[in-house]
Amino acid sequence: xxxxxxxxxxxxxxxxxxxxxxxxxxxxxxxxxxxxxLTKAGYWLLPILGVWVLIYGINAASWWCVIKGVAPSxxxxxxxxxxxTISGYALNYATPVGGLxxxxxxxxxxxxxxxxxxxxxxxxxxxMMHIFAHFWFWFTSIxxxxxxAAVGDLPLNVPIACVLGFIALLFFGASYVFAKGYxxxxxxxxxxxxxxxxxxxxxxxxxxxxxxxxxxxxxxQIAALFSQDKKAFxxxxxxxxxxxxxxxxxxxxxxxxFGVDNGGGxxxxxxxxxxxxxxxxxxxxxxxxxGFLPMQIGVQEGGFVLSIAALGLSAALGIFVxxxxxxxxxxxxxxxxxxxxxxxxQR
Length: 347
Hints:
By secondary structure, the chain is an all-alpha fold. It has helices at residues 3-24, 31-41, 45-70, 78-94, 99-110, 116-150, 158-184, 187-194, 201-228, 230-257, 265-289, 299-310, 315-340. The protein has 13 helices and no strands.
């Protein structure tokens, strides 16, 4: 590792540490209330935290599909991909505009194993896959909500119909944009958009002129995965989609903790799980509408309260779920930044 890379690694590490501190002191509840919530969660904290081993494992498998599609000869251990996945998401949680920290860190680290252009392409492609899977998750959740509404389990009124319709419109718009990006690449296109932003036109033009060949190479690799290795493409997308359903288990555990089980039994727990899927879908939708806030402070909490209230549950439950999720984020950010500092031989 060069001195420059070491310095960047230390910078990313510092960002993660500061994020943990900021999150600890930006709770909307006192530390006494926070401790009461944690005490209430009790042993349920173990599966709530533990399910993210499964979620990050699925994310890592999705990224691995992309890496093998872009760089077939790449030889990376599953542990290295898993570690970089956790650390990358930890930095994404910690920084504004999502990928400001996680994606550059992944590119920097992965460039030690494969060609820099391939590393850049795989990270950009995986980020696109992660976002596109969100849109698919939101879109299919529309039909889940309508199905439950049709059997009288959930309400369907004008405000809810408007939200569902808005999600559908966004999905079709996003599908068009992503299809163009997968077929033609996105890097040069994004630079073109940046060139239209006041104050960035000159920088965008100079950057493109200096690195046009490398940028074109990255775009070519992005387009090649979709056109030449559809198995890797769809496997990655499917895994990312499945990870959203796995994430819903976290909310299911918290609902069961509160005694919300729709009568119990297999049918009751299954119905509660489907409600959990809708809660995650609506919460992530609201949170991503304002993704420029660091750690989405306040947005995620509001999203949980709104989505849980939309399903006829109490706002107090929404607050509890949001607080426990915030604690889980802090724990996994801490784990992620600690993994960044593992000695090289343990990576």
